Each structure stands twice: as structure tokens, then as C-alpha cells.
Amino acid sequence: MSAIDSAPTTEDSLEARLAAPDEETVAALEQLDGDVIILGAGGKMGPTVARMTRRAIADRSRRVIAVSRFSDATAAAQLEAQGVEVIRADLADPRAVAMLPDAPNMIWMAGQKFGTAGDPVGTWTHNVVASVHAAERYAQRRIVCFSTGNVYGRSLVARGGSQEGDALVPDGEYAASTIGRERVFEGVARRSGSPLLLYRLFYACDLRYGVVTEMARRVLEGEPVDVATGWVNVIWQGDANRLALRGLLMANNPALALNVTGPMVRVHELAERIGRHAGITPRLVGEEQPDALIGNVDRLAEYLPYTALPLDTLCAWAVQWIRNGGRLLSKPTKFEVRDGRF
Question: How much is the average pLDDT of 110-139?
């Protein structure tokens, strides 16, 4: 079967693909006891992580709980139909967090990136203040804390990407606030003994959003692709979902940090791959700079080896999705931003 033949063609088939656990994910969750609670489950990735968790845990006495404000009532109803328990709560409200049910396994996915430049107070509230409430409420539980590669800032391409032991250098308020989030969880974990994984995700790609979809849209519409930010890491969101759940087993004290993404790829190569599937020669502009927001994935390969969706397949799927009129979320990654302003 070709990459095109296997492509999701509807949102239902896409959601099902994103929420499909593999054998390693099922085995990891079987090794854990008790319920799983996902805080911030109403965002781009949260619903499919919750659905995957429910599908991977055969024992229906173990609860899978998704917590968010859930402004999208349809998303909440779909989760409930899949056997996920939905709780609507404002995670920045300490009273709401204090009332959440206990669970020995917690995944923290809440946060704000887009709009940071116009709402720095909101960014720090969502990324730091809310983290304080959650870290204290789930102290001594096993935690995967979603973070981001932005904590490193740009690094020289010649180094091969930022490594987990590198100094964290904030580039703008978003990066500074996500470092704050990490420090909050680390501080509570250090005091309470919580096993913690800092899940530093670089550019997960759904077909409705993500670096590959953004670039495919530009190529298909004849827009230029700026290669000044010349390298990027990308990962299929389904792979990122599975790794997050397997990451519960990797939670450790002292905390373990893990870069989660695919290998570095040159932006012009990514555009050309897309162009080949589209039958279009991409318009490349700009002069490639020596640094970019890029991550080294050697530790990921050591701790959580996995079989990734091939990059070429993802490129083919994105082209077909857009050409078939698939819905786009209009949430740009801004991977090419070089001043830290989101």
C-alpha cells in the first residue's frame, strides 16, 4: 500500500489514527497501576492522548480522566462516548484543582504559547501559576510534564541540536515561562519525591496543523518558503502521543528531561519532499542561518526507541489532506520565528 493509499481522508479517520496505541504503549500502561488523569486535555493534542489512553487500558475499572475548560462541547462529548471521564475545570483556579480526583498517574498538558506577545500575564498564569497548583495537588504521583524545545533557545546547527543537559536560555516570555513551568514541577518533585519526566516536545504534526502542513500549504499555493531558519525537527502527533504515555514509565526522581521529536531535517529538503508529492517546485527564499531551534534525539532513542511514521509519508499525507479540502486549524507553529515573540 502506498503512502497516499494509507492516508487519513476524514477527521474521524485522522483522529482514530492519532489515538491508536501500539504494543509498546499498551505494555507500558499495563505496568502501571491505577487511574490516569490528563490535565489540559482540551488542546490540540489532549483529546487524542486521552482517547489513546482509554484504548490502551483494557481494565475498565481504571479511570481515564480528561480535565480542561472544554470550551468545545463536541470534543468533550466525543471523549465521553469513548469512555473517558470528562471534568470541566479552570486549572488556574487553585480551588478547582484541589477538588480534582486523585490518580497515581498524571499528564500535564496545559499551557499557552500563541498570543504570548499580546498577553504576557496570561502566559505566565497558564504556564507557571497553574503549574504550581497541579504540581502540589499531584505531589508524590507519577508525572509527565509537557514542555517544549523553546527552553533551549536557538543552537548552532553544527552542534547537532540542543541536548538535555544544555543550559536553558530563554528567548522571549514564552520560553521563560516554560522554563518556569519546569522549575515548578522540579521543585515540588525534589521535595515530595514525585517521579517526573520533563517532556520537551518539538513540533508535533497533525494534518490540520504543524510545520509539515504549513509548508505544504505554502508550496501548494505558490507562496515562498523562507529558509533563513534552515533546520527543524518534526514528529507525527500519533508518535508523540504514544511516547508521552510510555513516558510515564520513564518518570524519575531526580527528574528526567527528554527531547521528543524526529531527527533534524533541512527546511529546503522538507519543502522539496513536499514539492515532489505535489508536483510543484517550491519557491525558496532567504539565506540559511547557522542556528535554529533544534533538538538532539539521542537520549530519546536510548530511553524510548520507537518506529516513527516516515517523514515522506507525512509529507504525502499533508499534500493530499490540503488538496482534498481537509480542515485546517489556522494555528501556525511560527517555527521560523527568530526573536522569541509568539
Answer: 84
